[in-house]
Specification:
With about 160 residues, the protein is of the alpha+beta class. Helix content is about 55%, strand content about 20%. The chain has 7 helices and 5 strands. A 5-stranded antiparallel sheet has the order 1-2-3-4-5. It is globular, with a radius of gyration of 17 Å. It starts with a helix and ends with a helix. InterPro entries: MlaC/ttg2D (IPR008869), Tgt2/MlaC_sf (IPR042245).
Length: about 160
């Protein structure tokens, strides 16, 4: 990933290159299911598939949009320790002219190989924050999962 970030590729080329990497290293489906909370169980198969497709696109866009922020970045990997059924991997991210960031990566093997299922920076869980946002949105729309699907669709369309 660091090679992609630090390359001279255009942003659109980087986005194309980053998607397979993310699919290999991150259990995006697991994160997506977690973010939907209990609404995952009540969703129809069609809603689930549409939501997963949108979540993958949103996730890729989100990472790709931030790649420029990480140009010149270096990572150092620290300890790995058990965290429930997962492993917590400590890292330090160093960006030029910025303070070091301590990031904890939560890695799970449930999908057949080690994949990231959460990132905790400054004590804040990325997937928990997303879950709170998504569930809150659904609740504000009377439990209507399609409302979230429409909102995600609009967001992706605006992104281009």
């Amino acid at each position: 990933m660091v090679d992609i970030i630090n390359s001279d590729m255009s942003p659109s080329e980087k986005k194309i290159q980053i998607r397979p990497f993310l699919d290999r290293m991150v259990d995006v489906d697991d994160v997506a299911r977690y973010c939907l909370g209990t609404y995952w169980r009540t969703s129809t198969p069609e809603q689930k598939q549409h939501y997963l497709d949108l979540f993958h696109a949103m996730f890729t866009n989100s990472i790709a949009d931030r790649l420029g922020d990480y140009r010149g970045v270096t990572f150092s990997i620290g300890r790995a320790s058990p965290s429930g059924d997962d492993m917590a991997v400590e890292t330090v991210i160093v960006r030029p002219n910025q303070t070091r960031a301590n990031v904890l990566w939560i890695v799970n093997q449930a999908s057949g190989g080690p994949k990231v299922v959460d990132m905790i920076a400054e004590g804040v869980s990325l997937r928990l924050t997303e879950r709170q946002d998504y569930v809150s949105y659904i609740e504000r729309n009377n439990g209507n999962i399609d409302a979230l699907i429409r909102a995600l669709t609009r967001q992706i369309e605006r992104h281009g």
